[in-house]
Design brief:
It contains 14 helices and 11 strands. It is α/β, with parallel strands linked by helices and 305 residues long. It has 2 domains: 222 residues, Alpha-Beta Barrel (TIM Barrel), CATH 3.20.20.70; 76 residues, no CATH class. Strand 5, helix 6 and strand 6 form a beta-alpha-beta unit. Helix 2 packs parallel to helix 3 and helix 3 packs parallel to helix 4. The longest helix is centred in the N-terminal third of the chain and has 14 residues.
Amino acid sequence: MTNRICDLFGIQYPIVQGGMVWCSGWRLASAVSNAGGLGLLGAGSMHPDMLREHIRKCKVATERPFGVNVPLMYPEIEALMQILVEEEVKIVFTSAGNPKTWTNYLKEHGMTVAHVVSSSKFALKCEQAGVDAIVAEGFEAGGHNGREETTTLCLIPAVRRVTSLPLMAAGGIGTGNAMRAVFALGAEGVQVGTRFALSKESSAHENFKNYCLNLNEGDTRLLLKKLSPTRLVKGDFMSAVEAAEARGASVEELRELLGKGRTKKGIFEGDLEAGELEIGQVASLFHEQQTAKEIIDEMMLEFIK
């Protein structure tokens, strides 16, 4: 098929793989791109030199377009941006920050830029900043979320109303039917995180994948709102956070509870007890690992029925 998202990124299908920390390395990104979607490397969990390595490996593994997701609050952001220029990355998705800060720099170096938002207010800021496309991500998404807690089906028409830019929907999307629903509301593409996080090519630990593939409805919660709203999976860490928040824990107490490296411990190292487990609500629909190609083929078959 063809539409503005396919044309903008030079891809066969308007399906973008979310650039998720500890899940989105070169194997997953290249597999998604080879299957006709747009694969993204998740720079948020990579040191600059590691990102350079993944970019180079992805170039070897696919001749098709791929990109890099960059959280703008990344601590070594200047070094990372320099690497994107040096390695001639063509597509960058930015998130978790003000798009005005880096959009001009990226576009001056020939990159196509999309930015992730959680409200129509921030979508307008994206347009003013000069981005090429917008990802509107609803409350259902895994990991870090916007404070608005707006669901995807409410967010997409609200964003479509205020901007004419190419628009992708994210949050709770993992099937072709969900894709059709958001297209009916004004989206022209989708960004899929959870389903690809649980794919065979994902760099997440097998313990994490298998645990999330056995979740039921309601097994995730949006917590840590005093810090940064985060959708967590049921388990020891989520229970500890709930207990702390119920007794009115301060920001400092929550930071201490969160500690350092807890997400890596849970998602990448597979520690289901001490680790922080993050996944979207849509995980409860899926119960087996699939390849990136199987996921895209299944979604597109369902979408065009």
